[in-house]
Specification:
By secondary structure, the protein is mainly alpha-helical. It folds into two domains: about 50 residues, Orthogonal Bundle (Arc Repressor Mutant, subunit A); about 140 residues, Tetracycline Repressor, domain 2. The protein is built from ten helices and no strands. It is elongated, with a radius of gyration of 23 Å. The protein starts with a helix and ends in a 7-residue tail after the last helix. The model has no long low-confidence stretch (mean pLDDT about 75). This is TetR family transcriptional regulator. Keywords: DNA-binding, Transcription, Transcription regulation. Pfam families: TetR_N. One of its GO terms (molecular function) is transcription cis-regulatory region binding.
């Protein structure tokens, strides 16, 4: 006996390929990242992520119960990858180095890292105050991790070079990060108006100004 025509013509439901939990999680985070290459964080929705991953929403909700859970996991992953990116550009030997050269080179490297992956850094440089309530804690956490890494480097520099003695490491780190984040945000959002050469020239001038134009003895 043949099937009724309506049943025969109905498209078969697509089922997502079974994946181990960690692979599924990575797949969904990759899909969310891909969606955010074309949208802002507040525009992210579960339907778009599921469609990008080629799965049904029930599969997505099995891994991430809420949109906030998904965003928190994505920000944590991208923060870890960002720290790896930054660590590769940071100086490892500060002995005998001119603090002006080190500071300006570090800020320039930070901007370069941001330009190498604009989507990642657009997420991480988003201010918590401008984010939806459900994302603010995750953004604060990701920024805190970057701050801790930067302050450790600043403290090392303060110990090594006596000309930095008496400078508050927390305030100096905040100043450098504020400048770095501002420049990276401009470079990512409007590269035509703020090309890398313009930013590098500004960095070299402002860092020398911040530390009083100190030069090696």
């Amino acid at each position: 006996m043949s099937e009724p025509r309506a049943t025969a013509d109905r498209p078969r439901r697509r089922y997502a390929q079974r994946l181990p939990p960690e692979e599924r999680r990575a797949q969904l985070l990759d899909a969310a990242f891909a969606v955010l290459e074309k949208a802002e964080l507040h525009e992210l929705n579960m339907e778009a992520v599921a469609a990008e991953a080629g799965v049904g929403k029930p599969v997505l909700y099995t891994v991430f119960k809420t949109r906030a859970d998904l965003v928190a996991a994505l920000l944590e992953r991208e923060r870890e990858r960002a720290l790896e990116q930054v660590a590769e550009t940071l100086p490892t030997d500060l002995l005998g180095a001119d603090p002006v050269v080190v500071a300006s080179a570090t800020v320039e490297a930070f901007v370069g890292v941001a330009l190498s992956n604009p989507t990642r850094w657009r997420l991480l440089l988003a201010g918590p105050g401008n984010a939806p309530d459900e994302y603010r804690e995750a953004i604060r956490s990701s920024r805190a991790g970057i701050f801790d890494q930067a302050e450790a480097l600043v403290r090392m520099g303060l110990v090594i070079d006596p000309r930095w003695a008496g400078i508050d490491s927390g305030l100096l780190t905040n100043s450098l990060l504020t400048i770095s984040e501002m420049l990276a945000r401009l470079a990512v959002s409007d590269p035509d108006a703020y090309p890398r050469e313009r930013i590098e020239g500004f960095v070299q001038a402002i860092v020398r100004l911040l530390i009083g134009g100190a030069t090696p003895e």
